[in-house]
Amino acid sequence: MSATRVVLRRAAAVTALTATAVLAAAGAASAHVTVHPESYEKGATDGVLTFRVPNEEDAASTSKVQVFLPTDHPVLGVMVHPQDGWTPKVTTTKLKTPVKTDDGTITEAVSQITWTGGKIGAGEYEDFDVAFGELPDNTGQLTFKTLQTYSDGKVVRWIEAPSGGEEAENPAPTLKLTEGGEEAPAPAAAKGGDSDTVRTAATDGSDGTARGLGVGGLVVGVLGLAAAVFALVRGRSSKADA
Predict the structure, then answer these.
(1) Which of 125, 135, 149, 179 is 20 to 30 A from 85, alpha carbon to alpha carbon?
(2) pLDDT of residue 151
(3) How many C-beta atoms surround the C-beta of residue 234 within 10 A?
(4) Cα dihedral angle (69, 71, 73, 78), rounded to 10 degrees?
């Protein structure tokens, strides 16, 4: 085999490995339970939160999802959207500090929603929609700790809150609450519309970084291949001049 082919094959291998590694890392970074949209205005009313649950196991399916709602800053008027194949169980808790509203004082709120009976297979995800009547106006974010149970008994605990600007290994879905006037993404569309459009819109924010990293990896690989070829040609030219 000629020296040219050896160099080109090695360079191509480096390019492929670089791109694959970066794309794999990008996929792993985005494959966790998330809430959409990423933010709402403080005190927002009559909206929808969508919890997106991807399946990360190749040999097992997701069989149970548990989302825990904060009770120190409760979400009021929670209702669960019917989900084909899944049976929801809603748990309410008495609030330590009742919430006063225009309709009266609220003493209880939903603290947990559990979905069972369904299945999320390998390479698939499921969206769970939860409607709310009113979000709190006295905090900057809401953290929804989540447990994901697989058919083989494995439980992934998405319960870690972001700290120091670095993403946790198993981050909990977190909703940012903005001040009035701040730009925030539109709420997730209700079921019954164009599902492909809804899913695409919901993933734009979380997948943008992953796609950027993937493209960056490919560019680096291509530049590496070009540099190898240039070095080979330059070496041959030097020998010919000598």
Answers:
(1) 135
(2) 98
(3) 10
(4) 50
